[in-house]
Amino acid sequence: xxxxxxxxxxxxxxxxxSFTTIILSFSPSHSSDPDPLQDFCVADLNSxxxxxxxxxxxxxxxxxxxxxxxxxxxxxxxxxxxxxxxTNANVQAFPGLNTQGISMNRVDFAPGGIFxxxxxxxxxxxxxxxxxxxxxxxxxxSNVLYSNVVKAGEMFVIPRGLVHFILNxxxxxxxxISAFNSQGQVSSVVPNILFGSKPTIPNEVLTKTFQVSESxxxxxxSKFAS
Length: 226
Ligand SMILES: *[C@@H]1O[C@H](CO)[C@@H](O)[C@H](O)[C@H]1NC(C)=O
Fold this sequence. Notes:
By secondary structure, the chain is an alpha+beta fold. The chain has five helices and ten strands, in the order ααββββββββββααα. 2-acetamido-2-deoxy-beta-D-glucopyranose binds next to loops. Belongs to the germin family.
């Protein structure tokens, strides 16, 4: 250190550069959720302690059943306006995922069903079509639409945070299974966020945003009120 301090500024520059490189290469922002510090930390969903994630069940109470989940085995009920059903296998549904930085979901589609525009704020999505064929579209932050018809056995990827949709294009049912690099993956569904929030976004914000009359906004809001 002493020699470095006595020299000109060039060594400082390299010192700072190498520290920056080290910090960047270890930064958790390069992946998604932070890395675990132990073999497992099966979530105690009932704990009153609040941390970034969930506290662990005592290891003495952990058993084989903590490492298996049946949530994705069941077909979702698509009897709804979108004719689709999202089943999440995230940490809330599968506590064994706690601290592991991954989760999954399944989306069932009746014929013509849609998973409306949405984003996953904390995770990239890697999906595979299991049954049928779907139109998968995503829009970049430069407003460019990228879309593909994806068939059974084929994969798609949705970069983290980008708005995307999935539409069943086949004649029968469709099923997709996706993996996420976040244990607590959730979907921010655009129409529900804009028109179904609680409390609701003031009509003035929405009429000015979409440049339509208040009656149009009220009509759309009535479809998302729950
Ligand atoms: C599916 O959901 C609809 C509407 O909520 C309901 O009427 C129906 O009983 C459900 N079907 C099954 C099999 O749970």
